[in-house]
Amino acid sequence: KEAETQQKLANVVILATGGTIAGAGASAANSATYQAAKVGIEQLIAGVPELSQLANVRGEQVMQIASESITNDNLLQLGRRVAELADSKDVDGIVITHGTDTLEETAYFLNLVEKTDKPIIVVGSMRPGTAMSADGMLNLYNAVAVASSKEARGKGVLVTMNDEIQSGRDVSKMINIKTEAFKSAWGPLGMVVEGKSYWFRMPAKRHTMDSEFDIKTIESLPNVEIAYSYGNVSDTAYKALAQSGAKAIIHAGTGNGSVSSRVVPALQGLRKDGVQIIRSSHVNAGGFVLRNAEQPDDKYDWVVAHDLNPQKARILAMVALTKTNDSKELQRMFWEY
Ligand SMILES: NC(=O)C[C@H](N)C(=O)O
């Protein structure tokens, strides 16, 4: 009987990378003061015995870090392992446990470069497992539930936090002190309740199977940096980033990706020197940058990041630059992905 149910259940691999979902604090009252990336994957799985009712689950510890320290090499390592697993016949879905600070970046990266329609779910938690009302157990349970469902196929990389199923492209960490931390300007794709998924919409942007990018052909990622804008901003950071070898600079702009008149000449000069200038917005609830609004992008040969926040714009710019350094092509990619 047991062997029969095992055969019917989906095979889900959990790749653990660290973060607060693997965090531990000194007492149950420590919801914000704790160490991330302490608990190993076997212990995480053992902490949620109900997972075995959803899927045949096995774990792999890919790395053990707090996600603010993730590097491009870490991204490539994780992306390659996901691709290997997605290619193997005995894997139906993949879950990645991840710190929440850069979870949205990793989810978007995988959404761009993984050539599979198998569910890939990135999940984290806002509180360590040692805290009262820890959210990691249920988030992980939901992630495995979605990863083992057929309906999650072909919907791109997904994020399950706070009972919601979000598109890895759209979702962003909007607040750092609530379990209701992950939001998308365009709303969640669905909900997961007691291990069952309820879907409401589909992602409209190109991803995974329909993407022109493939982790298997990416050897390294170019240096793309972000410079933040604010009142009285100077051009020092932009120039320094270019000098240190940035191939593109994401302008984390105010409002509609607007650029201070004190910075415009430097950006014009950097573009002439070959650095790509990509205008994004750091508006919290979701920036939306229009071409030739605020600045004459056609004239200056700049790119706009569409609705991607600066950190997501960095991910797409890096991946895009592995294919082209043509600003028109880059702009096309920013509209399509
Ligand atoms: N909630 C978290 O996971 C935060 C942690 N600093 C991380 O991203 O790894």
From TrEMBL:
<dbReference type="InterPro" id="IPR027474">
    <property type="entry name" value="L-asparaginase_N"/>
</dbReference>
<dbReference type="GO" id="GO:0050417">
    <property type="term" value="F:glutamin-(asparagin-)ase activity"/>
</dbReference>
<dbReference type="InterPro" id="IPR027473">
    <property type="entry name" value="L-asparaginase_C"/>
</dbReference>
<dbReference type="InterPro" id="IPR027475">
    <property type="entry name" value="Asparaginase/glutaminase_AS2"/>
</dbReference>
<keyword id="KW-0378">Hydrolase</keyword>
<dbReference type="InterPro" id="IPR006034">
    <property type="entry name" value="Asparaginase/glutaminase-like"/>
</dbReference>
<comment type="similarity">
    <text>Belongs to the asparaginase 1 family.</text>
</comment>
<feature type="active site" description="O-isoaspartyl threonine intermediate">
    <location>
        <position position="20"/>
    </location>
</feature>
<dbReference type="InterPro" id="IPR040919">
    <property type="entry name" value="Asparaginase_C"/>
</dbReference>
<feature type="domain" description="Asparaginase/glutaminase C-terminal">
    <location>
        <begin position="223"/>
        <end position="334"/>
    </location>
</feature>
<feature type="binding site">
    <location>
        <position position="67"/>
    </location>
    <ligand>
        <name>substrate</name>
    </ligand>
</feature>
<feature type="domain" description="L-asparaginase N-terminal">
    <location>
        <begin position="11"/>
        <end position="201"/>
    </location>
</feature>
<dbReference type="InterPro" id="IPR037152">
    <property type="entry name" value="L-asparaginase_N_sf"/>
</dbReference>
<dbReference type="InterPro" id="IPR036152">
    <property type="entry name" value="Asp/glu_Ase-like_sf"/>
</dbReference>
<keyword id="KW-0732">Signal</keyword>
<dbReference type="InterPro" id="IPR004550">
    <property type="entry name" value="AsnASE_II"/>
</dbReference>
<dbReference type="Pfam" id="PF17763">
    <property type="entry name" value="Asparaginase_C"/>
</dbReference>
<dbReference type="Pfam" id="PF00710">
    <property type="entry name" value="Asparaginase"/>
</dbReference>
<dbReference type="GO" id="GO:0004067">
    <property type="term" value="F:asparaginase activity"/>
</dbReference>
<feature type="active site">
    <location>
        <position position="20"/>
    </location>
</feature>
<dbReference type="InterPro" id="IPR020827">
    <property type="entry name" value="Asparaginase/glutaminase_AS1"/>
</dbReference>
<feature type="active site">
    <location>
        <position position="100"/>
    </location>
</feature>
<dbReference type="GO" id="GO:0006528">
    <property type="term" value="P:asparagine metabolic process"/>
</dbReference>
<feature type="binding site">
    <location>
        <begin position="100"/>
        <end position="101"/>
    </location>
    <ligand>
        <name>substrate</name>
    </ligand>
</feature>
<protein>
    <recommendedName>
        <fullName>Glutaminase-asparaginase</fullName>
        <ecNumber>3.5.1.38</ecNumber>
    </recommendedName>
</protein>
